[in-house]
Amino acid sequence: xxxxxxxxxxxxxxxxxxxxxxxxxxxxxxxxxxxxxxxxxxxxxxxxxxxxxxxxxxxxxxxxxxxxxxxxxxxxxxxxxxxxxxxxxxxxxxxxxxxxxxxxxxxxxxxxxxxxxxxxxxxxxxxxxxxxxxxxxxxxxxxxxxxxxxxxxxxxxxxxxxxxxxxxxxxxxxxxxxxxxxxxxxxxxxxxxxxxxxxxxxxxxxxxxxxxxxxxxxxxxxxxxxxxxxxxxxxxxxxxxxxxxxxxxxxxxxxxxxxxxxxxxxxxxxxxxxxxxxxxxxxxxxxxxxxxxxxxxxxxxxxxxxxxxxxxxxxxxxxxxxxxxxxxxxxxxxxxxxxxxxxxxxxxxxxxxxxxxxxxxxxxxxxxxxxxxxxxxxxxxxxxxxxxxxxxxxxxxxxxxxxxxxxxxxxxxxxxxxxxxxxxxxxxxxxxxxxxx
Length: 437
Known about the structure:
Layout: H1 6-17, E1 32-36, E2 39-42, E3 47-50, H2 53-56, H3 65-75, H4 88-101, E4 106-111, H5 114-129, E5 133-137, H6 146-150, E6 166-170, H7 185-201, E7 209-212, H8 228-239, E8 242-246, E9 273-276, E10 287-292, H9 293-296, H10 311-326, H11 329-345, H12 347-350, E11 354-360, E12 363-368, H13 377-389, E13 392-393, E14 395-397, E15 403-406, H14 414-435
Parallel strand pairs: 3-13, 5-6, 5-7, 7-8, 8-9
Antiparallel strand pairs: 1-2, 2-3, 4-10, 9-10, 11-12, 12-15, 14-15
Helix pairs in contact: 3-10, 4-10, 7-8, 11-14, 13-14
């Protein structure tokens, strides 16, 4: 794709004014200027098929007319008032979220991001349990605030060992590169439950909660066996420990098989707290927490949210959620995700750099290794560059940065997933050929 130097000039200005640690994708970052449906255009006129959706945020599609209209209409009335006043869009959205949450006697609190949602969940759990001890999964990611970084198990995204909570990490999702690598689903489940029991046996006093992603997002879409958290909940219930399900990336039907990721693990009951964000706003800054009333109402102090559930974001999010439900995009995620997965599974035989293909629905990870079977982040970077050259945007993650993250909007069509798969397979085969000759 052509270049006119517009991006280079903007990248130079960015470097002069923003932090060095604020990372960008690609050797030559692009300025995404506009989008429509599943496609975006950059400032130099290049068109891309978006298979990352602003980090799994563009849930229904770019420039969705229904969302645009709702935001425009509300913006013409009032932009902001805060939770100190009645806010009809926020209340209507909360009613809708409560309705689809699956939580008994739910209460909903809106935030501006998934980080803030997880921060709130930790506040609720530690206060309710009068404990600052928290269980989290290895390889996890829960946000960039002081407390959410403190329960993040991925070293690349947790820059400090300082913490407002005591965090104890347990096994759950990540297999490759661990002693769990060769275990079957049943064996892995038993090993993880035994590990959880062992960790709890070494702790003094009560533990507040276990916070876990049903599929680890930044962790490279590492996926636990179905039912693992149900087995965890049996142990947690014996100790009175709360279960917090971080659905910032798995929520709203992205996995295809369920509306919430936790529903693959509901054999022993529901989570006490669910956090969400990203897809609900389709790019608008909104997150939140839904919890059973006993837990949500346990906060003893006064509180407000200046920007959480603002009239404009709530109106847009409600239109977006209604569109998702009316068009049954969960079903589409299951259908198109199965096609995409089948195409990419072929890379396990044809591309020697591919060690694993995993995930559910439209949340697929492809793990890359070098000829010795070691993590190959440089290959993942090469694939990203090659897919960009061919007009497809994807992401990457994993503990070592060697996992491709593929997550189109849930409205993606069958022809679009086939087109994206073709480009991905071509890029994987090219990189494999050059490095595994």
